[in-house]
Amino acid sequence: MTALKNDRFLRALLKQPVDVTPVWMMRQAGRYLPEYRASRQKAGDFMSLCRNPELACEVTLQPLDRYPLDAAILFSDILTVPDAMGLGLYFETGEGPRFRKAVDSRAAIEALPIPDAEQDLGYVMEAVRTIRRELNGRVPLIGFSGSPWTLATYMVEGGSSKDFRKSKALLYDNPQAMHLLLDKLAQAVTSYLNGQIRAGAQAVQIFDTWGGSLSDAAYREFSLAYMERIVAGLTRENDGRPVPVILFTKNGGLWLEAMAASGADALGLDWTCDIRNARERVGDKVALQGNMDPTVLYANPQAIRAEVGRILERYGKGSGHVFNLGHGITPEVDPAHAGVFIEAVHELSARYH
Fold first, then answer.
1. Catalytic residue among 32, 154, 192, 315
2. Which residue positions does UniProt flag as site: Transition state stabilizer (predicted)?
3. What confidence tens digit (pLDDT) does each residue in 20-72 have?
4. End-to-end distance of the chain based on CA atoms, in angstroms?
5. Which of 27, 138, 229, 279 does the annotation list as catalytic?
6. Is 132 annotated as catalytic?
7. Residues 6+ positions from 163 with CB-CB distance below 8 Å
8. pTM for the full predicted model
9. Annotated catalytic, 90?
């Protein structure tokens, strides 16, 4: 494989020295970019864009052509795994993702197949291979998956939910059935991420978007335990170098110590955590990724730079910090403001290294 020209993202995840703090953005290939909207229109719809390796590569590279980002992230969706389990994923305008079949009984859970990464999700693996080839060593490529709990909520609810009524009812009414579903998903996600690593992903992130909706006890039993199982099953070296693993639980600040003991290399932080406090709590166990409020990008450039400077100061000196937003960039952000953010991270962080 081609040697990396810029590996500061991977080095920061492993707490190795870097010249400046690396930066990337969750959803950096997305609707805030006019070139992304043009590619999506060309594809016809969102899932057609995901399933076309050439177009998925095109939109993955678009933000890198615009900004000096330190990593690319595979363009895909967390719900590709349940879709490959036969639930029939589709998207309704203004409504978000929907499944033609919801998982609403133990029998439905027992009938779910565990998808094969290459056969059932081969379009994702081909996208990873295409992106790695086209990147030609510019920056590392991040692969990803949703966490078992997060995927389960969409599968049981049949789509998005504000209160996770059906998922939580199943969790408390029939914990054995929920554990069976999560066990199948943990197997599927482990296989899926290992497939991405074989295809060329140089780091992977597990998105636990809805883990923070759980109680303390339920989070540990029904979310974190399955992410720990996935981390233990991942290929941690490929191409002669380590493959770092990032865990991101939105609203997960309560569990940083437990997450740091999961075996992951880094934890993603949302904007509700103070990064200095988080660094003190996890010590040298893991690197930290985050954690600017995405809505800061609606503010003026001076305010964006000031918030970047504040977070860098709160983290302090040394490596082990990957700058990111605390969640995905939102569609209405001015692309020029994203540029101010990225340049500010590089410019203002040099003094801390």
1. 154
2. 77
3. 999 999 999 999 999 999 999 999 999 999 999 999 999 999 999 999 999 99
4. 29
5. 27
6. no
7. none
8. 0.97
9. no
How many Cβ atoms from other residues are within 10 Å of residue 317's Cβ?
A: 10
Options 31, 106, 198, 220, the catalytic residue: 31
**Tokens standing for 115?**
């998808």
Whether 40 is catalytic is yes
The share of the chain scoring above pLDDT 70, in percent, equals: 99
Q: Would you say residue 12 has pLDDT above 90?
A: yes
Give the pLDDT band of residue 96 (cuts 50, 70, 90): confident
At 324, the amino acid letter reads N
Give catalytic status of residue 37 as yes or no.
Answer: no
User: Is residue 28 marked as binding?
Assistant: yes
At a CB cut-off of 8 Å and minimum separation 6, what does 190 contact?
Answer: 229, 230, 233, 234
Check residue 2 and give its pLDDT.
Answer: 74
Q: Does domain 8-352 have CATH number 3.20.20.210?
A: yes
- Domain edges within the chain: 8-352
Mean per-residue pLDDT over the chain, rounded: 96
- Both tokens assigned to 43: 């594809």
Known catalytic residue: 31? Answer: yes
Q: Annotated binding residue at 70?
A: no
- Residue 93 assigned to a binding site: no
pLDDT single digits (tens) 209-257: 999 999 999 999 999 999 999 999 999 999 999 999 999 999 999 999 9
